[in-house]
Amino acid sequence: MSTTTSAAMATPQATATVRPLGILAALPQELGDLIDAMRAESGVHTVTHGRRDYHVGSVRGTPCVVTLARVGKVAAAATASALIHAFDVEAIVFTGVAGGVSRDVHVGDIVVASTLLQHDIDASPLFPRFEVPLLGMSRFSTDTALAERLAAACERFVAEEGAACAARFGTREPRVHRGLIVSGDQFVASAAAVGALRDALPDALAVEMEGAALAQVCYEYGVPCAVVRTISDTADDHAPTSFMSFLTEIAGTYSNAILARFLDAPRGAG
Ligand code: SAH
């Protein structure tokens, strides 16, 4: 908790019946202009909790708590837990970049998770590889309606701005994919490593470092979540340079465009 403001006191629930949406990313570039947009629309009330800043306000009429998890599964799990317990969020959306794993997923494409799995969890032979011990699960589902609404926002963005984005950034025309995203505490950056992931998990579309941890926490607390990832690299030997240039030049553009359309869509609508 910050010394001046208790997160519980700052919870919008205390003053209004609408519970906020949690919006989460790992790195600042992945949030685009979201916090500035909130500042312009409603003003921002910032609460420091567990060494993270939670920005409370509204964006496009939706009460939101926006924060950065930083990188990795522990960071994502801790931040998701705080969003649930200290800010009483109704749902959580994660926006960010990822490495493409499927050969069909290219830099500039967008992947919306239907399920997520921790590719580095392995308590075999005691438990099957990828299973979270004692929970008996390896794949965690996102919320169907939320993922549908997020994917529809991505499709609208691609239809309206995809060609212009491709020309501007020198990528292929973006496509939207839906399916399995895998997460682990490694930046995957070699042909061998991404090939091993492809072999072990043939339906994996993309790899990143946070989503499956968020999905596990949300499953455990019964909070709906969704994850959208723009492909910054293909998790091979070119990944470090591709990731860095995508992150600095493109990630914010995608995030702004997708979140605007997502927040403008009526709730429950695809
Ligand atoms: N602090 C560093 C490292 C970021 S790690 C930096 O800013 O340069 C990469 C981040 O992007 C993670 O949050 C992860 O979720 C995502 N990501 C993108 N490409 C990835 C890949 N090939 N493997 C794993 N994570 C990837």
Automatic annotation (TrEMBL):
It comes from the Bacteria. GO terms for biological process: L-methionine salvage from methylthioadenosine; L-methionine salvage from S-adenosylmethionine; nucleoside catabolic process. It is an enzyme of class 3 (hydrolase). Keywords: Amino-acid biosynthesis, Glycosidase, Hydrolase, Methionine biosynthesis. Pathway: Amino-acid biosynthesis; L-methionine biosynthesis via salvage pathway; S-methyl-5-thio-alpha-D-ribose 1-phosphate from S-methyl-5'-thioadenosine (hydrolase route): step 1/2. Pfam families: PNP_UDP_1. GO terms for cellular component: cytosol. Its EC number is 3.2.2.9. NCBIfam families: MTA_SAH-Nsdase (TIGR01704), PRK05584.1 (NF004079). This is adenosylhomocysteine nucleosidase. It comes from Paraburkholderia antibiotica.
